[in-house]
Amino acid sequence: MTDAAPPIDKTAFRQGLEARLKKRYAQERRFRLYGQLAIVFALGFLVLLVGRIALQGYSTFIDYEVTQTIYVDPAKVDAADIGGSNFDLLVAEQMLAKLGETDDKLGEASGEMMGIISNDFGYQLLKRVQDDPSLIGRKVTLTGPVKADAALYYKGELKRSTPQDERKLDDRQLDWLDRMQASGAVSKGFNIGFLTKSDSTEPEQAGVLGAVIGSAMMLLVTAVLAVPIGVLAATYLEEFAPKNRWTDLIEVNINNLAAVPSIVYGLLGLAVFINWLHVPRSSPLVGGLVLALMALPTVIIATRSALKAVPPSIREAALGVGASRTQTVFHHVLPLAMPGVMTGAILSLAHALGETAPLLMIGMISFVPGVPEGFTGAATVLPVQVFIWENASERAFHERTAAAILVLLAFMIVMNLAAILLRRRFERRW
Amino acid sequence: MLTWIALLALFLFSGATYAFGRRKAQAMAARGKPGALHSLPGYHGGYVALWAGLPAALIVLAAALFGGRMEAALLRADSPAAVQALTDHGQAVFFDDARAMAHGTQASETIYEGDLRTAIEDKAVQAKRLQQLIQYGALAAGVVVGLAGLAIAYPRISPTFRARNRVEGWIAVLFIACAVTAILTTVGIVASLVWESWRFFQSVPPLDFLLGTAWDPQIAMRSDQYASKGAFGAVPLFAGTFLIMLIAMLVAAPIGLYSAIYLSEYARPLTRGVVKPLLEILAGVPTVVYGFFAALTVGPIFREGFNNLGGLLVGGPLNGLGIYLSQVQNQMALVAGAVMGIMLIPFVSSLSDDIMNAVPQSLRDGSLAMGATRSETVKQVVLPAALPGIMAALLLAVSRAIGETMIVTMAAGLQAKTTLNPLDTVTTVTVQIVTLLTGDQEFDSPKTLSAFGLGLTLFVVTFILNVIALRIVQKYREQYD
Amino acid sequence: MPAQRDDSQARGTAPVHISVDRAYTDGPQHEVKIRARDVNVFYGDKQALFDVSLDVPEKAVTALIGPSGCGKSTFLRCINRMNDTIPGATVRGRIELDGEDVNDKAIDPVILRARVGMVFQKPNPFPKTIFENVAYGARIHGLTSSKAELEALVETSLKKAGLWGEVADRLHQPGTGLSGGQQQRLVIARAIAVSPEVILMDEPCSALDPIATARIEELIDELRHQYCIVIVTHSMAQAARVSQKTAFFHLGKLVEAGPTGEIFTNPRDSRTQDYITGRFG
């Protein structure tokens, strides 16, 4: 009771603390600010990225179409050889005629006209006349897009103020475009063609349908392979496997596989599936195989954590009433873990959907102008389509690249939302 | 197509045998007293169905997978004299084209005339016949094996037969097979990379590849003109990869770490609930989108910025720098590195967030109860405790940065340079792999094979990084479990 | 919520609440150090403490006892405002430390926590060396100006915590390498090093074996001559052994408080009687 506390000058002590306090709180605020800045930077970039791409891409969905009646001049169309007739020239001349212009001897005017209206007109006319040769000598009304450069002019992205030799269209072409618009032949509308057509060398006719279907087919192959194999493998490792050196090896191996660069999977696909097993190049089948191998580790990891979340008491209860291990797993554990498994699977598939690099290795970079003909036919997929268009030099393709990205992001958002809803709907806490 | 029909038919057949076996077991059960049957009738059905379906399905699948190879091998078994006169490579193309003709796929653009023309037509017919032989042969074998399976399994059904254990045995085999797929993938990766790299190292010694300082695979194609040795030095690629990785980490590490700290230590649950999913979206954006953004938005902005800055400096005391800056190109390492860094922010942030959340709350309480501020607690207690885990997270990010392909392919250049200047154009290992393997390729040239040499190097480096990182994380988690 | 608040304030002066707390007077040095009046704590919508009013004497050990979830730890965490760190926790009422309201805006939680040390249920040495653990408070608060001073502080603190003899030769080894009881004494040394006026202990022995527990109890008995100590404990025997004053909490309310001897021999409330005789809890 008598050993007194060492004499501490409490007021001096507190004053010392308070003196330092301001500096410490300044430090605290600075530190907190850095954290906020980091978050703001990351989210700001997200906004910038999506906003910029949306701005670049939205104009793709606006389309300028010309409607014009074309006289199928019997003098220019050979009924005996319809396919050999130059419909592009015919259309261009008629368009010129509508503007009160005539073609010159060298065909320069019609050449310039072909530079502002799509050759889709010639193609449409050819088809119509082939189907019904009696159209020769009659008038046909056609609607088709203007060339991509002309559309850029209508959208105001290609400006008359730019010096003539620095833009794709000359003054005369711009005049024609103005007059065509003034005549009421040009209508502005939603570019449904971007969603219903496939790749084309002409930007105004290029669409994403082929790539969307290609992506869907490839994803189907991936899902059919990766999900069942991944779920079974995870179930085995989590529920049945004895803990020994082999299962340890498999476990370490799976974690490592999840971190292997995707391009290495592409090399694997090239060497094994294409060169060794002769699976057709650039087909949804080979793409799906490669992506399935890539998605497998993530599916396994997600499934294992879903299985881990099922409490052991469920297993003990089932085993306690005499069910076998297999019955316990299939009747109780897996159904309970299913929402988690499906969420993980969807997220891995969404990731696979956006993957590009390994697909370049297996030849998915070729120009495919249509919808893939089955699982072994040549196909292109959305992210690769983005890559191909980004490489194209025409400015109109850049706009389409951004639009294709928007379509791709829309798919990913749908898949992610599905996963989130699934998680919310079936989430269960023990 | 035929394979699919065959598999479907097998599936139906196997389903029928299931019903068949089950009925027999049920009938037995009905005769005996309750519980006389060891296993439920369904298991008896399943047992029969497995015997009837599985081996046959394996035969059909094997034919589909390896039929092409078998056909090619049989096709090459006897080659006409005209074909034998061709080079090895020419022969390979010839047979590929023959098969392409037979199956209506795209052939190479080689033109065959005279003897070769007749030979290739013969071979095409032969290929078609061989393909049918293999397909129908497999089909017939499948039918026989399926029926045999039924014949073996069906008579075994009896009240004492332990059908459930047998079926579960089959299921266990299926389980193990699935788990082994993961191992097979690794084996496949290692085998294919090592095998193709070995072929590459036949023409370019490994040391020249790893230590050479000149990279110019285009010229080496014409081996008569340029010694192929000097052109496959990968050092400039490693340097470029390293430079871009370094820039990426300089962006991703501080920003990712600070966001993780904010999210795990400061943010209210509501903020956390909003920010985390948004960061997940950023993490889910495909890399090709980042590449597009880097190439068409960030690149031009950076170039203009530096050009304008250079314009200001020209004529001043920093004239030289000004001239340099005004000539900077779009495809500088800085652009690819910075965008890659942003891509890695959510990766670093979510890993470090998990790691910091694993630090026990009691340590934070201890520090706060001593009168430490939050930032002092983070800096002096939480971060030191989480350090190993955070190091591992950064290592994983480095591994991602090294292996990332699309951003660099779209935003970095193709010039192989050994430099640490972030404004210079560099190329990386992954860019070169893509460049070497896209477009027309022949599989015997060192040019194409060098991609596998690069791939092997990439795999080994990232593998080592991953193993180390995962080891650390595992140890770290065990510490706080 | 405001209704409850007004209610509690209105009742704040009512003598009935103070009457459950009998003062501990065993000499002039035991003046009241902490004076709590009508403390209410909410975690979100859930109320964890109801109108607790309690006097804690200086230079003595006050034990808070009661069944699990009765609010004794919650009360403890109000004294050094550790409840601030829990999202959604709100504290109403007055807690005075030497006459100053700790929840006053003018009181800084950092200074308050330097004055009120805390020891937790599970020993929580930082993943640093033994030396750095003890030096931690001095470093963050800037208490020492030289290395020698710091070393002296670490040594005195470890000596006071009765750990010096065991760790003097391994000061630079990690603190996490010590045994559970040693870790808990290390944590006490860490708290002592910033010269606190009050030490709060939240079930400091519940994770320890009986021998380690005995050492901690001895230590508490030594420390009470210099500090005001508040200890939450599950063990009635421990409360009886180490404390001079005991407060019994039940369902978030302070049922009864008074000199330890009186509470254990002559409880006034039947619930206290039931609890100390082991009928519930």
Could you list some keywords that capture this structure?
heterotrimer, B: mainly alpha, 2 domains, 18 helices, flat, C: about 280 residues, Rossmann fold, six-stranded mixed sheet, four-stranded antiparallel sheet
Describe the fold and architecture:
The complex is a heterotrimer of chains A (430), B (481) and C (281). Chain A is mainly α. Chain A has two domains: 59-191, no CATH class; 209-426, Orthogonal Bundle (MetI-like fold). Chain A has helices spanning 10-57, 87-98, 108-114, 120-131, 148-154, 171-182, 193-196, 209-240, 245-257, 262-276, 284-308, 312-320, 325-353, 357-361, 382-391, 395-426; strands at 62-71, 139-145, 186-190. Chain A has a three-stranded antiparallel beta sheet with strand order 2-1-3. Chain A is extended. Chain B contains 18 helices and no strands. Chain C has one domain (2-12, 19-276): 3-Layer(aba) Sandwich (Rossmann fold), CATH 3.40.50. Chain C contains twelve helices and ten strands. In chain C, strands 6-7-8-3-9-10 form a six-stranded mixed beta sheet, with helices on both faces. A four-stranded antiparallel beta sheet of chain C has the order 2-1-4-5, with helices on both faces. The longest helix of chain C is centred in the middle third of the chain and has 14 residues, at 147-160. At the A-B interface, helix 1, helix 8, helix 9, helix 10 and helix 11 of A face helix 2, helix 6, helix 9, helix 10 and helix 11 of B.
